[in-house]
Recover the amino acids of this structure.
């Protein structure tokens, strides 16, 4: 599958979160795009921001389909106000981003998150009727002494795509597979052969996997949602 390059149609936006203003960027899409999307970044304490390479390539995959994409910095990151809250308050930041997309576009939303962003974002988005599908990149299991749990996944009924490297140092194959097995259908797990947690040298494969899944799962030949 060929993916169109991300256009220069990008603008800064400011979200109002419960801890203050959140720095954000919107890659504008086609006026008639049936969806909008949100992409969340990895752990701020490890240097994660909305400019992370995996986040950027996830944006390119979605934007290449004409979908508007919102990225933002969690509280205390970059020029976002507030302080890091160990994944708790960050869920409220995700809700603020969803609220902004709903208010400005009034279209269904697709979510994607990388590492910490996947963990926090999926917790916030599971069960939210505005969010039609979830994409978890580099799902973390144990990272820098932090354990990540996914007790909500058996009740999470939205379509889910998991993309992980089979050499992910923070998401070993057995751990990710075990978590995936608990998740409610519909779901799909794609292993990127030889990829580490950051998908070094494999980001093109990540882009293609995202674009293919979104196209197959949500876009029919007529451009309408396909939720079967």
């Amino acid at each position: 599958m060929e993916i169109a390059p991300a256009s220069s149609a990008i603008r800064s936006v400011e979200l109002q979160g419960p801890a203050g203003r959140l720095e954000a960027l919107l890659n504008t899409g086609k006026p008639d795009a049936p969806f909008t999307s949100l992409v969340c970044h990895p752990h701020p304490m490890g240097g994660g921001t909305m400019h992370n390479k995996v986040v950027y390539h996830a944006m390119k995959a979605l934007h290449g389909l004409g979908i508007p994409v919102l990225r933002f910095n969690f509280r205390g990151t970059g020029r976002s106000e507030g302080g890091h809250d160990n994944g708790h308050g960050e869920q409220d930041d995700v809700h603020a981003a969803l609220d902004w997309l709903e208010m400005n576009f009034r279209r269904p939303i697709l979510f994607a998150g990388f590492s910490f962003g996947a963990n926090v974002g999926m917790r916030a988005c599971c069960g939210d009727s505005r969010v039609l599908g979830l994409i978890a990149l580099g799902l973390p299991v144990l990272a820098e002494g932090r354990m990540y749990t996914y007790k909500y996944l058996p009740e999470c009924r939205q379509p889910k795509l998991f993309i992980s490297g089979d050499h992910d140092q923070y998401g070993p194959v057995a751990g990710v597979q075990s978590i995936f097995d608990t998740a409610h259908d519909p779901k799909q797990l794609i292993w990127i052969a030889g990829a580490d947690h950051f998908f070094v040298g494999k980001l093109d494969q990540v882009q293609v996997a995202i674009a293919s899944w979104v196209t197959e799962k949500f876009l029919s030949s007529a451009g309408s949602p396909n939720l079967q």
Summary: DSSP finds five helices and ten strands in the chain. The first helix runs from residue 53 to 63. The first strand starts at residue 10 and ends at 17.
